[in-house]
Amino acid sequence: MVKYELPKLPYGYDELEPFIDKQTMEIHHKKHHQAYVDGLNKTLAKISSEFHPQYISAVLSDLDAIPESVRSEVNFFGGGFENHKLFWETMTPKPIDQPIGKLGDAIDVYFDNFENFKKEFSNKSMSIQGSGWCWLVFNQTFNKIEMITTSNQDSPWSIRKIPLLGLDLWEHAYYLKYENKRLDYISAWWNVVNWDYVGNRFSELSQD
Ligand code: MN
């Protein structure tokens, strides 16, 4: 069967300082993300491999095919695994200022301009009640980008949207440094978004 492993971070735990602190990064990756990896492997071991022949994003896109007895666990641990994997990939110690190329153009089309996009994304991130994520996603059906939020570890894949960029708004993502000041965390995070990576992800998906 498919066994998932904790992905390596593409940078050191301290390299996103001062925006995301070393201690938060280390606990978030080694403890929280590892717990989703372990939970996912344990859950998948309970069901026959015929139910999960594909990578987790494909499984999440068709949760109804998973036996009901483990569906919510697959959703939670699988979403947690994949959401965090993307979260690490979409941050970098050496970011470019803003999206360029096709993604830059699409942001201007759907959100007027980059500053306004950031404002809307920050507001949406602030509006999440409890734990969840704010996302920029690609809607393949309509060949467009959208901004959405999900609760807990729900993944955009399970509503058939492809995540391009996600911000973790669980308290474990920021509380050590920012305490209850969620907006300060969001504002700091903009400084480490890997627009090169997000832009390439979008270019591969979008049709001209
Ligand atoms: Mn997290």
- The fraction of residues assigned to DSSP E strands is 5-15%
- Structural category is mainly alpha
**What compounds are bound to the protein?**
manganese (II) ion
Following the backbone from N to C, one meets helices and strands in this order, namely HHHHHEEEHHH
Q: Tell me, what's the shape?
A: globular
Uncertain segments: none
Number of helices: 8
Total of domains? 2
The helical percent reads 40-55%
Overall pLDDT confidence:
95
| Cα separation of the termini | 38 Å
Largest sheet: spatial strand order: 2-1-3
CATH topology of the largest domain: minor pseudopilin epsh fold
Largest sheet data: 3 strands, antiparallel
Please tally the β strands and state the result.
3
CATH 4th-level superfamily of the largest domain: Iron/manganese superoxide dismutase, C-terminal domain
CATH class of the largest domain: Alpha Beta
